[in-house]
Design a protein that fits this description.
The protein is mainly alpha-helical. The chain has two domains: 142 residues, no CATH class; 178 residues, no CATH class. 74% of the residues lie in helices and 0% in strands. The chain contains 15 helices and no strands. The longest helix has 36 residues. It is globular, with a radius of gyration of 21 Å.
Amino acid sequence: MKAILKKYAKRYFVDAMGAMAMGLFASLLIGTIFKALGMIPGLSVLTKIGAGAQAVAGPAMAVAIAWSMGAHPLVIYSAAAVGYLANSFGGAGGPLAVLIIAIIAVEIGMLVSKKTPVDLLVTPFVTLLTGGLLAVFVAPWIGKLVDLLKEFISFAMTRQPFVMGILVSVLIGIALTLPISSAAICAALCLSGSTGDAGLALAGGAAIAGCCAQMVGFAVMSFKENKWGGLVSQGIGTSMLQMPNIVKNPRIWIPTILTSAITGPLASCVFHLQNYGEAINSGMGTCGLLGPISLVLGWFGGIYPASVGTLDWIGLALVCFVLPALLSLAASELLYKIGWIKPGDLKLPE
């Protein structure tokens, strides 16, 4: 039983969720980048390309999920329509609806795929019928659930920004390093102020702080063992590379978690960093520098603050880069001295 649970936990919460994030990246996020570039004089055509990419986020997520589950071609192709419907009917909970409904539709579709002489008709029919009915009758309820969760996060963030800054930063940062997708979680929770919700914008800023703490922290404190290659692969790639080492010695995770518990409330209470970009950016950290870039786009998108000053840039630098590096390094050196971390514990596999 334990082996079966482990198998399906990996299938749905690691593989499918990770693929969903890649689908979001290849549509919604890259579309946002194109639209931003389209603001440059003479490049307005990129705005149209970006809008088109954003419009197919649902199909992109569902197709990616189906592919990650090893679905047959007809099931994968049918998942595109399922993703569109789930994302449309899911409202604010669109990404979460796509994740849940696409998984179910793919599993049902695979039960009949290549089992009949008329596979060309049966497989798409069953896959789309399953996903379509769930999209119509279940996705709206998922959307309402996400709305309630968003309201709670927004309410708590505006009432207790210090406590929520710690919780959001630490939990999303941990999710970033675990073999699950922090980007997908942030997208599902809508951690962005793009709809005008200042509480969610603050939560997005705290999430970015936590993710940066993990990535920059591991990159810097493991530099003496992994050199420049490790600095780049973890600092602008992913701290997930340290998971095998964390399994061997969980104590190596202490410095970055403590750091995120400090930078999260600094982001929300002191520097008031807010994400007004796409929600997926809240879970990206310094991966491609998308987290900090999303904060900057909020400044120059005319949303907040009224004017960008030196303190804003100092806060961004401190929360996203300087403090994660210094605090994680200082904490790791202390743990080396007391023997909780030993030479080689942070060495990345060749």
